[in-house]
Every structure is written in C-alpha cells, then in structure tokens.
Amino acid sequence: MRRLRDVGEHAWLAHLLARLGRRRPTRDARILVGPGDDGAVVRGAARLVLTTDTLVDQVHFRRGWLTAAALGRRAFAVNASDLAAMGAVPRWALLALEASPRMPVAELDALALAFAGAAERAGARLVGGNVARGPHLALTVALVGEAPGRIVTRAGARAGDAVYVTGVLGASGAARRAGRLPEPPRRTRAGVALARVASAMIDVSDGLVQDLTHVCRASGVGATVEIERLPVAPSCRRALGGRAAAFAATEGEDYELLVAVPAARERALRRLAPRLGCRLTRIGRVTRGRPGVTLVDGRGRRVRLARGGFDHFRR
Amino acid sequence: MRRLRDVGEHAWLAHLLARLGRRRPTRDARILVGPGDDGAVVRGAARLVLTTDTLVDQVHFRRGWLTAAALGRRAFAVNASDLAAMGAVPRWALLALEASPRMPVAELDALALAFAGAAERAGARLVGGNVARGPHLALTVALVGEAPGRIVTRAGARAGDAVYVTGVLGASGAARRAGRLPEPPRRTRAGVALARVASAMIDVSDGLVQDLTHVCRASGVGATVEIERLPVAPSCRRALGGRAAAFAATEGEDYELLVAVPAARERALRRLAPRLGCRLTRIGRVTRGRPGVTLVDGRGRRVRLARGGFDHFRR
Q: Contacts of residue A140 in chain B, CB cutoff 8 Å?
C-alpha cells in the first residue's frame, strides 16, 4: 500500500490536481486561476458569505465510523450547513488537510475527490487547499458563499416569533452511539427559502438547546420549546426509548436548521414549506426575558435536562 | 492559570469577540456581518484571490520557539505571503484553531488578538473562525484577497526571463537551527509592485530551489541560478560558513518573493525597485528545456546539492 511518505507532498498534490482536472465535468468560467498556484483567483460577487470549520480525528469522527470518501463529503457538508443557516449557497471551497505520513494515498485521494464531488453537486468548486503533516487526520474547510436573496443572522429573533426546525433530530447522536456517522442532510435549498421569512436562523451543530441559546443571546430574547413537539428521528426513539426527546434536544451534529419566524410571515412560510425538500416542525416560540431556552412538556411544565449541549472543551 | 477546559469553547469565543470588538480601531463599512455568527458577510470585489495554509505544532513550530502572539502574527504572515506572490492584498481572514483543553486561555487570547492585529495592519480583517479540540495546537488560516492590478501565477515564465528574489535567504533556517523562528518579512507591497512586471512569481516557503522548480514545472521551462549571487542572510553566513549559500538555496520559510521578469520589462522593474521596501537581487535566468533548476558557480560550473527542499512527508 502506498502511503503519503512514499509519495511526498508535492508529488501527491500534482497527482491529485491532475485527477481533479480530468474529472471536472464542465469548466467554470468564473475560475480565473484554479488550484495549484499560491492562491486561486475567482470572479467575485457583491456580497460574500465566509465560513470555516474543522473535523479532527478522535474528536469529530473516528476512522472506523465512516469511509474516507464519506469524511470528505462530511467536511464539505458541515461547512455548507453554516452557509445554509445564513441563507447562502457555497461557491468556492478551500480544503486544508493535516495527515500522518503513514496515511494511505488511496484514502487521501478518495477523501479529496469526494470533497470536490460534494462541492460540485452543491454548485461550488474546490479551488485550493493545503496538506501538512500532523499527528493525525484533520480537515479544515473554508467556504466562500453567495446569498441569492435575504441574509439571516442569529440576531433577529423577536418575542412572539415562532420557532421551527427542519428534518429530524437525534439521528446523528443515536448513530454515533452505535459507532456510525450518517451523512448530514443538505439544507442549502431550505436555507435560502427560509431566509426569505426568518427573523433568525442557525444550524443545529452543538445540539438544539445550545444552538437556540446562541440565537437567544445574539437576539436578546428567551425561547420556550415544547419537548413533545420535537421531530425525534425514529432511529433515536428506538435506541433511546423514553429518553429520546431529551437526547434529541441536546445531541449535536444534526445539521438541521433552527428558524425563528415572525407571525406576520407565517402565511408566506406556509407557501414556502412544500418546496423546502424537508419536513418543517413548529417546536416553540420566542419570548421576552433573559436569554436562554426553557423546555416544557405538553402541559407547560418545565423540563430540566442533565446536560446543555456540546462544548469542545467541557464535558 | 485558567485553561480552555475551565472556560469552555463558547464562553472563550464570546469573551474573545468582545475583546476584538473593543480594540477595533475603526468600523469597516464593508463588513455586513462580523465574527460570531454562522458566517461572516462582507462586500465582494470583482476578482477574489483565495488561499489557505496551516501551521502545526511540532511540525512548523515549537512552542518554545516563539510567543503565542508571534505565532498568531506568523499564521497571518505566511498566508499573506501566498497572496503577495499573486500580486494580491489580504482583505478578509478566517482563523480555525485546534487546541488542547489544557491550553492556557491567556495564550490563546494573545494568539488570536495578535492575528487580528496583524490582519488589520495589512488592511485585512479577521471576520470569522473556529476553535476545535485537537491533540495539539494547529492554526489554519484562509484569506480572501483582492488584486489592485495585475495578477501573476507560477505559470508565465519564459526562456530568457531574468530571475530575481526579494530580501535575503537562509535567515529563517539559521534561526530555526538555534531554536528561534523570526517574523516573516512583509512583502505585500513588493508583491503588488512586482506583479506589474513579472511573468511568474512564487513565495519561497519550501526553499528557493524547490519553489523555483514549481515555477519551472508550471511554466514548462528550466532555470539556472548562480549560487554566488544568492542574497544570503548575514546570520546564515555566520552560522553556516562555507555551506551558507547551499543552505540558503534549499531551506524553507524565508517567505521572500521569487520573480521571473522578461527582458522587455527590465527598465520598468528598475523604476519600481526603489519602492519595493526591500532588496531585490538578480540570481539567474529562465532557460529552455526540461523543467528543473540548475545551480552554477561563478564560472558556470554545475553545483550539486544534497537535498532539494522541504517536503512535508519525505525527509
């Protein structure tokens, strides 16, 4: 098996660039200088949306949990999710890899080509990157996106807004307990559509309660979520039983969109909903008062959870 | 001493964003959404230049070699160097950190604030980032730049062009042998100026011979370098003696600019030279033939080197 140390950084990159060049389905006239130089040169846009996120081996994934190709797709998807939460679509991608010299070249190839493929399916292009020696595998992605319409931040939620979430929650957490890591949902189309009516939006990466808390803090509002309304994934219900809803409320990496919508835009939302490409569930409302999330049961009684969500440095 | 695990990811980020907000000297009207959301939103430009590079502990630096603030500045500088080599100036910066939970908060603060300060001094802004748990410290930067004028790649060198290098070579390698890592030179202004006359340009990050080989391959040309003409840093001469020139030809991380200039633009280059803010030395010429670099002594005799330059995965 050929490993990175057998081939070397520069030969591997040259080989990868050749493969990328061959498989490219169409030329993109907006790329003036593609990968392989000190920087890529692309045509700009009036507004750019920039984001970056990292996946680290043993922290965000374990090698046995997914294939190299799935890891490449995932690195793109989790970053595209951040853009979707702004109402933006990805356009240009940079992929910075850290890898051990012992990393098999075939795996690194599969990872990079799958990343490029995921970018292309989303309308974006891998235009640059880097590979550095590191203690173990890590993928840092930077995306430059564009917003076709309205841009939504975390900061616009107002008391009285309804709170919605796309898709289902808890599937990723349940799979992780079983040593798997499912593909994140693609919510770019939903994000662009929801941005037309949302007062605030975020993607659920650290767990619903924690991410809604981020929205509350940025907006200076509180929020109440009815735990029984949460769209808990069937796989999560099967694995967690009676604890499934609490688990789904706090487990991270669902990459669904959490949206606040003013009452005045509810009609417009109902018109949009069939075209989102995913389920949309009303789970609560934005309230006055101290920033924070209150979970309640069907009778309005407060539910307390043991943990709040994912934080990289506290457990 | 407070460490990252005592504070947590979200509290540290909130604290950092508050400090960044307070120290910001002027508001930038081109930032529509600053750091702290899922993405930053900035006003675009007609042409964007994108680059990314990573610094990994124990690979690119050791903690004892430089302060946390110097490391933050360095992470910005090595990326700005890639933009300079295209003739571009940095405008927007993303900083993705991997850090151990044991990392002292004061050091991470110093690192991030110094990064932001370096960006501002260069006319850029830190608009987003990420912090993830990792086995040890790593900094991945993505820069979005703009080119005020002509953009230069590695691919335009033609036989007969003269080869120049800015500044001095070997200083970084000599310092590294002594357990230090000096600040990279700032060549943004020189890069923009040289782009007006250059046929090809690259920054010297892997060593002069190797980086000139990259230019040769991209341009389909050869190059001859007179080793006695190399602007060897005095510190390198002192440390390496008779081996200084060969050392300076192959050691990486000088972050000087290596430029090919057609004969027809030599007069324009002479007019530019006094305004580059650094020395500029003619070291060789571009030749016909197989891509590769030939080193010669003062009498034109070929000089062979033991090693070619830096490759992350081969030693």
A: 52, 54, 96, 130, 140
Q: What percent of chain A has pLDDT over 90?
A: 82
Residue B310 pLDDT: 65
Record: contact A50-B59, CB cut-off 8 A: no
Closest Cβ–Cβ partner in B56, B88, B311 for A98: B56
A to B CB pairs, distance under 8 Å: 248
Residue B304 pLDDT more than 90? no
What pLDDT does B26 receive? 65
Which of A203-212, B37-46, B163-172 shows the lowest per-residue confidence on average (mean pLDDT)?
Answer: B37-46
* Chain A hits for B218, Cβ within 8 Å: 36-37
- Contact of A42 with chain B, judged by CB distance below 8 Å, is answered with yes
- In this complex, is the C-beta atom of A188 within 8 Å of any C-beta atom belonging to chain B? no
Instruction: Mark which residues 251-310 of A lie under 8 Å from B by CB.
Output: none
Instruction: Report d(CA A280, CA A276) in Å as an integer.
Output: 8
Q: What is the mean pLDDT of chain A?
A: 93
pLDDT of amino acid A30 = 87
Domains of chain A as residue ranges with CATH: 4-28+44-146 (3.30.1330.10), 162-303 (3.90.650.10)
pLDDT in tens, B224-253: 999 999 999 999 999 999 999 999 999 989
**pLDDT at residue number B218:** 94
3-state secondary structure chain A: CCEHHHHCHHHHHHHHHHHHHHHCCCCCCCEEECCCCCCEEEECCCEEEEEEEEEEECCCECHHHCCHHHHHHHHHHHHHHHHHCCCCEEEEEEEEEEECCCCEHHHHHHHHHHHHHHHHHCCCEEEEEEEEECCCCEEEEEEEEECCCCCCCCCCCCCCCEEEEECCECHHHHHHHCCCCCCCCCCHHHHHHHCCCCCEEEECCCCHHHHHHHHHHHHCCEEEEEHHHCCECHHHHHHHHHHHHHHHHHCCCCCCEEEEECHHHHHHHHHHHHHCCCCEEEEEEEECCCCEEEEECCCCCEECCCCCCCECCEC
Say if residue B72's pLDDT is above 90.
yes
Residues of A in contact with B8 (CB under 8 A): 311-314
Residues of chain A found within 8 Å of residue B51, distances taken between Cβ atoms: 38-40, 94, 128
A contact test, residue of B82, B312, B315 with most A CBs within 10 A: B312
User: pLDDT tens digit string along A201-218?
Assistant: 999 999 999 999 999 999
Asked if the Cβ–Cβ distance from B202 to A154 is below 8 Å, we say no
